[in-house]
Amino acid sequence: MRELTAKQRRFVDEYLIDLNATRAALRAGYSRRSAGQQASRLLRQPRIAEAVRDGQDRLAKRARLSAREVLGRLAELRDAAAAKGQYAVALRAEELRGRHIGMFAGEKQVRIPRLEDMTEEEILATLGLDKNPAPSVVPKPRTRSPGRTGKGKKRL
Question: What's the rounded Cα separation, in Å, for the pair 109 and 99?
């Protein structure tokens, strides 16, 4: 696999600071106008994604945290917050647990069932379509008489 360029390496290092791809792209020297697009494109590249994972692994080892410990602590925080009625805090802890297992990418949910695993009814429901739609009525196009433009207006 090809090595990362200096700019790509800087992007990865900056991304690992706060996990904000757009800000990381700006700090790495990408154009302000296209930083968001560049960040999105970079994170989809396998080499960059691997470098990010490697960096996260290094950081976790340095902090002596395992994924199990982090997820366990988040579950404790969620439960404690819910018991105190702090539902926003509980929801945030649960969101972070979901992000860890890859349920979200950025702000969009990415759990999409495979088409092969879906029934025809599920596919149609996902698309918002009925299996046997009512026939649509298409209005007949209106035609004009040659030379008439309607309401006494002359054609220019």
Answer: 10
- Per-domain residue ranges for the chain? 6-62, 65-129
- Would you give per-residue pLDDT tens digits along the chain (156 residues)? 578 999 999 999 999 998 999 999 999 999 999 999 999 999 999 999 999 999 988 887 777 767 788 888 888 998 998 889 888 888 888 888 887 776 765 554 445 556 566 677 776 666 666 666 555 555 666 666 666 555 656 665
Cα–Cα distance for residue pair 112/127, rounded to 1 Å: 13
Rg of the Cα atoms in the chain: 27
Helix or strand holding residue 93 (H, E): helix 87-100
Identify the CATH class of 6-62: mainly alpha
Whether residue 69 contacts residue 98, with contact meaning beta carbons closer than 8 Å, is answered with no
